[in-house]
Amino acid sequence: MGNFYQENGLSKKKQPEHVEDEGKMWPQILAILIVSLGPFTNGVLFCWSSPFTLVITRDKENYDITEEEASYFIVLQPVGMIIGSTFFFKIAELLGRKKAVIFLALPHTITWIITIFARSKWEFYAARIIAGIADATVFCSVPPYVGEISTPTVRGFCGNTPTFILYGGQLIITVLGSYLDVQTTAYICIGIPILFAVLVSLLPESPYQLIKDGKFEEAKKAIKWFRRKTDVEQDFLDMKTDVERQISESAQWKDLWTIISNRRALRAGAFLRFSQQLSGVSVFNAYTQPIFAKAGGNISPQISSMIFLGVIWILNLFCSPAVEKFGRRPSYFYSILICGVILIGLAGYFVVDQYQMADVTSLNWFPLAGLLTWTVFYSFGLGVVPTLMLGELFSASIKSKGLCVLIAAFGLSVCLTTLMFHQLTSNIGMYSPFLVYGICCLLSAVLTLKWVPETKGKTLEEIQQALKK
């Protein structure tokens, strides 16, 4: 939940002649783990609809909600994300990095409070929209903060931590939803955003933000805290130079399109988000149990969905080192290419099953095996790179506006793919969305080589200079 995790714009120039104190990495890692509690709740809320839609529609004693009305639970969250992207970027600019991160606890807490007392569809709709606003909040606040406190080394092996923890949240809610009711689950989860706000308040502000605000002494203290170095003067001077250059650039809305580096960053970011969603990931997460229910098989839909999300979660633990080793663009290319082939193979299975071209009873394990294989290759590129690069692409002056557009694109792409799945499966058959997603993946693989820059091992400043070439 891209790279979350850039270095503070620190360039590699001006190295001192004496042996440099490399400092420590653990404070940066600790800070990343703490702020990742925000994406964890986002993961929980994003997959909340998968187990609880069925629970709510079946419980006529507490809820009088039809399946048709409950189907909007999934759609309204990305709508909330689009709404949130239109205003929270400005709030983030006014609050600063750290306070914007803390603000994330507010929509999360409100969502759980509404869920606890909800009885009608309208209350659940409100909770889903506010959860979507929280999605916009996390993408506006967490990536820039983590990107500005971490060095390229930490970013390389720890940059995917928020995404890993987000998938952990999706797995947890799938397990809880299989055994607990709506209210009990909400009571358990409401404590997480409160703990999150308390812990984040103990962290220093981003030194990048402090330099922008002219608080130079506080910026030095923040650098010293995050890097545990005795002498941070050179780090501070390098960072100050890069920040001043970036904020000196024009930051009007039109500059997203008129300045070549911004235009390339916007194109790359929007492409990564749309191509990721057109692989079907949000649909598979939200409709995991219905997909496995229609596919049949010897394993229950609940257990199948737990296995599916569990594999995604585990694989994300190992994917960052692989992406760091092979690079962002090659990882994304091979990941989306192979995922496309797998999805077309699954579409073939559902075609044979739907039109009874052959007896597939002996192959009822294939959908689960196919999706698990898809998960493996998704995790080593598609599942990492879009979020990893989210905080890398834009300079300091235009970052909030760029993120606003990309978050709106993310919400729109989730809406479109979710509606597409529902319409295609209802009117054509289960095979049709898999076929469409597969073809989109193959086309996106070609465009990846043209539109996605390589940011491996680069500082914010180096990335900006590369985008201008």
UniProtKB/TrEMBL annotation:
InterPro entries: MFS_dom, MFS_sugar_transport-like, MFS_trans_sf, MFS_Trehalose_Transporter
Domain Major facilitator superfamily (MFS) profile stretches: 31-456
GO CC annotations, alphabetized: plasma membrane
Localization terms from the record: Cell membrane
Keywords: Cell membrane, Membrane, Sugar transport, Transmembrane, Transmembrane helix, Transport
Segments passing through the bilayer: 29-51, 71-89, 101-118, 124-145, 157-179, 185-203, 299-319, 331-351, 371-391, 403-422, 434-452
GO molecular-function terms, A-Z: transmembrane transporter activity
Membrane topology summary: Multi-pass membrane protein
The keyword Metal-binding is assigned to this record: no
Entries under PANTHER family matching the protein: MAJOR FACILITATOR SUPERFAMILY (MFS) PROFILE DOMAIN-CONTAINING PROTEIN, PTHR48021
Record protein name field: Major facilitator superfamily (MFS) profile domain-containing protein
Organism name: Rhynchophorus ferrugineus (Red palm weevil)
